[in-house]
Design goal:
The complex is a heterodimer. Chain A has 26 helices and 19 strands. By secondary structure, chain A is an alpha+beta fold. In chain B, helix 1 (about 15-25) runs antiparallel to helix 3 (about 55-65) and helix 2 (about 30-40) crosses helix 10 (about 250-265). Chain B is globular and about 70 Å long. Classes of the chains: A alpha+beta, B alpha/beta. The interface of A and B includes residues 160 and 599 of A.
Chain lengths: ~675, ~300
Amino acid sequence: MNPVRALVSRRLTKTDPASLFWLLPPLLAGLPHAAHQPLWLCLACGLLWVWRLGLALTGRAMPGTWVRVGLALAAVAMVIAQFGLFIGRNGGVPLLILLLFVKLLESDSARHQRFALLLAYFVALSVFLYDQSLPMAVYLLAVAWLITAGLAQLQPLARTDVRVQLLTAGRLLLTGAPLALALFLFFPRLQAPIWLLPSGEQVARTGLSDSMQPGDISRLILSGEIAFRASFTGPTPDSATLYWRGPILSRFDGRTWRTMADQGELRASVEGLGSPLTYTLTVEPHDRVWLFSLGLPATLPPGTRLLSGMQLTSPRPLTQRRRFELASHPRYRLGATEQELREALELPAGYNPRARALAEDWRHADTNPRRLLQRGLDLFRHDFAYTLEPPPLGVHSVDEFLFTTRRGFCEHYASAFVFLMRAAGVPARVVTGYLGGEVNPVDGHVVVRQSDAHAWGEVWLPDAGWVQADPTASVAPTRVQRGLTAALPAIEVPAALAGLHRPWFREVRHAWEALNNGWNQWVLGYNLDRQLRLLTELSPHLAGRAWQITVATLLAGLALMAWIAWRGSTRQERDEAAQLYARFTARLARLGMQRESTEGAQAFARRVAAARPDLAQAVGQISALYERARYAGDPGALSGLAVAMRHFRPGRRRPNAKAMAAE
Amino acid sequence: MTPGPAPGEPLRPPFDRVLTQVESVVLGKPRQIRLALTCLLARGHLLIEDLPGVGKTTLAHALAHALGLEFTRIQFTSDLLPGDILGFSVYEKDSGGFRFHAGPIFAQVVLADEINRATPKAQSALLEAMEEGQVTLEGVTRRLPEPFFVLATQNPYTQAGVYPLPESQLDRFLMRLSLGYPDPAAERSLLAGKNRRAQALAPVLAPADLMAAQSAVEQVHLAPALLDYLQALLGHTRACGRFLHGLSPRAGLGVARAARAWAWLHDRDYVIPEDVQAIFPSVAGHRLQDAEGLTGGDAAARSVLAAVAIP
């Protein structure tokens, strides 16, 4: 066959698929970014990739320099146009991704392809700036494996078979795993995860807010998202008693309840009763300061404050998942300040006249606050319905709810109840938080979701202090005892929640959530605190020595690598002549005369002699002795070489290395 | 820099005089002459691939005369028959029996000119004789003379009317060389000088001396370190994925044999990596085919040398 035609037809038909393997990992590394980057960027990267694949399949040449430079500049311009200057992840990551895909178009040699794969590592890593979940970590680990296999395949002398290289890469990753684990455990943790770089964007998160009006909580409970997890040291208490205390709302303007005016430290007297419960709280980020405790915190976790109204808060908004170790008394006696009590009696003038009239009637009949409280609770026992879809309420929301619609959700009941109490002269306020939670049988944690959000009342009794009173328990006792989905009419259970409670799904979900929780706790939540604790557990003296341990680990790792390298090299250079010659070339290399690995001793000697005639004689002699010792098996030459090497101390007398390099 | 042999290293006597003699006729090609001598000393056959008129025949002539060997020439054409190469039996009235007329192959140096212009049938007759060192005709086996050295020439594939040698037959040649155009100085003295005739060369040594030299070559020392290098080179051609097939073990033996001969010719009793680098392109070039479909040639072999470190 005509050789030219043979060339063409082979090009078209014989593209070995294994030789295209390196194109796969960059695509997979870029793929998860599609969820976070603009559409044009995804399309651009996809097009660039398909273009590169097409070039490879048809055997055509890469685009010219100007095309590539143009593409790179266009990429920079587009990213600046969309994101501004690249500070933080928002501009930097898209730029990195785009340049990786432009880089593919110049990768026609193994050197470029290796570079592209190294970039792909970074692109894969940058996914963690957006998503640190367990499935993503598993996916990215697989991508790292493929990248490593690609790199292995691109090594000179490597076999092209992808399966072989996957095995190689797997071995490499496993070899590196112990060092990675040691670094993870012992390398001093930064106080904040690195992905908290300023991102320039705020994610809207669901959760309780600092105000409440009708409909707020019934909207919130539509979300099945997890609010926090708790794990108890002792037995888990009955979920009906788990009132997780959140923001206290005391100011009322006729429609909206707002937080107490006094947001200072708790000044009222407080006393815990009975033995405290100890538990760990892992709070999901909700961008607010409050935390959730069961009753009175016995000790305050470091960095938290107890505000007036017995409201546990963190000094900074929770923008990342955090763990708190808590002990709290479910039973307590909480006093009040004058200001609090005044605030707990205030009612806006001109609203809800009928409710006020009703409460006035009660007060005229009986002024005992305890009996008034009971009367308020009893009111809801009959003729009221617990529903997620209450009719809309007008200006006099409490009146309309109490006397007309009589259908509502916990915020309606809490709001109406507190209003009645205040009108009857009993100080009262609204407490929001979560009620109950679900015990995950896999790891025993109590999982509290947004759908467990709740609002209840708190009433001041002169002889007992602030007392918790939940009107919802009167209208729908099952809400308190068995949770929301049991209390609502079946038809009203939100779809998102109904799915959560199907039996088969529940088991899968439990296992999955326990796994995720483990990941969050032990991997993502592995912070400086936990690291120090781990070190303390290993040995009480280690904790202060995190740095020493790190350095020791690193040194041990380096020593191990050096040993492996040394062993590898001695396998090749076990003969003495080669070692002496290696010393010889090393001495010359320090003078700028580097022996090429493919260069024979004579050729190298000629090159050195041309650059440094003053060394010509010694170099010629040593090279000849080396040759005889190594390739003629001449023992006399070997001892001669050893002697000659002892006297070979070339100096920088004539720095003429430039002339040599030019040769 | 590309790895390569030392220029102008003196040869072992009396081959230095052979070189001088041949160089006086084939101008400006000392490297190719050294390689051709190496091939002869390694008991290999030589294929010269080049354009007509660059001195292939002159080289063959000069070598044969300088070494005092008997020389024949077979011009390969498309109608050449095996009998024209090997010989045939003729009935003789006088003796009443058949007498064998030996063909041109029964000589010490055979120049097979333009081998790829003959049909595969004629080609294979020559190539079998080369391999076996003997010719079997009509049930009678006749040994070829010793030393026996075939120097074949072929035109580049791109010329009209050629039957390319298949890989298996290319493999019969230890080396492939191309002469190329002479450099300007050599060409000038060629144009200015009188007609140089190879026949005028005085033989430098006797056939027995050459055979002794061939035996001596086999005694040249191959150190373990050098075997490492050879294996690295062979391994690279098999693993790098650039070639259709890596070098065969037979090719490896050829490299070793040629490296020994080159070392011996340059007055050394042991092989050094430079010897391998000197002969490798000629020995491996015609055995390596680029995966892209072109015969790899010297450039491919040089790229192997440039990629494999000397252990």
